[in-house]
């Protein structure tokens, strides 16, 4: 089983039972680039926004925000992120709801960590094929490492916000992203004017390509299809 494929991936485990969280982290955590723990749905949602995990594993019944409510909020932010549920057998009805909100897979407690690991390997292989996004003939974006690099594998120096902007456009490709969504995502707790956004995008174009980012009047911005 090619476990080395996991070393590029970030996992977020949201589990309020510390013994289960420790068991799973000790059993499989070292295979991954990072394996982060959260104790409830609210903390899981906050950590998801900051660490941008590739895969989320969550319990259902948790304080503050349960696993399904957390998943619904996460899917509103990034509908493509795989979410795996750890569930007690008595929560069968909730599992039906889990399918409706886009859960990728579920495991009934008590589960075998090796079985979870085997599934994560198969999932990571699929995700790895989508890891590097071709922006143009000269530019590529690695979604796992959140890095932009050229055809010679040289990393192009971008700020965190600039990387987050490209990640947002790529995630929604080939659709455009509205100005309001861009502002809300990049300047969540700050005031962002249209002029500030235009200046920000002008700076990215100067670092990358004048034709990389296209403005669709009245709709927003997207990765120019002429480049891909």
TrEMBL record:
Pfam families: Response_reg, Trans_reg_C. SMART domains: REC, Trans_reg_C. The modification 4-aspartylphosphate is found at residue 59. GO terms for molecular function: DNA binding. Residues 10-124 form the Response regulatory domain. Gene3D superfamilies: 3.40.50.2300, Winged helix-like DNA-binding domain superfamily/Winged helix DNA-binding domain (1.10.10.10). This is DNA-binding response regulator.
């Amino acid at each position: 089983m090619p476990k080395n494929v996991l070393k590029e991936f970030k996992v977020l485990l949201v589990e309020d039972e510390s013994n289960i969280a420790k068991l799973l982290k000790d059993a499989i955590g070292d295979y991954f680039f990072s394996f982060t723990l959260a104790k409830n749905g609210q903390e899981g949602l906050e950590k998801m926004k900051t660490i941008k995990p590739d895969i989320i594993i969550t319990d259902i019944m948790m304080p503050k925000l349960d696993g399904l409510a957390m998943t619904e909020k996460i899917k509103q932010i990034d509908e493509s992120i795989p979410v795996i549920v750890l569930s007690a057998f008595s929560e069968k009805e909730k599992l039906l709801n889990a399918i409706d909100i886009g859960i990728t897979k579920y495991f009934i407690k008590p589960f075998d960590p090796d079985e979870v690991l085997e599934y994560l390997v198969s999932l990571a292989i699929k995700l790895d094929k989508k890891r590097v996004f071709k922006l143009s003939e000269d530019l590529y974006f690695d979604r796992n490492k959140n890095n932009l690099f050229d055809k010679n594998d040289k990393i192009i120096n971008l700020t965190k916000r600039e990387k987050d902007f490209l990640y947002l456009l790529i995630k929604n490709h080939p659709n455009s992203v509205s100005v309001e969504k861009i502002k809300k995502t990049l300047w969540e707790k700050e005031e962002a004017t249209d002029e500030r956004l235009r200046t920000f995008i002008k700076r990215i174009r100067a670092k990358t390509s004048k034709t990389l980012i296209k403005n669709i009047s009245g709709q927003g911005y997207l990765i120019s299809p002429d480049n891909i």
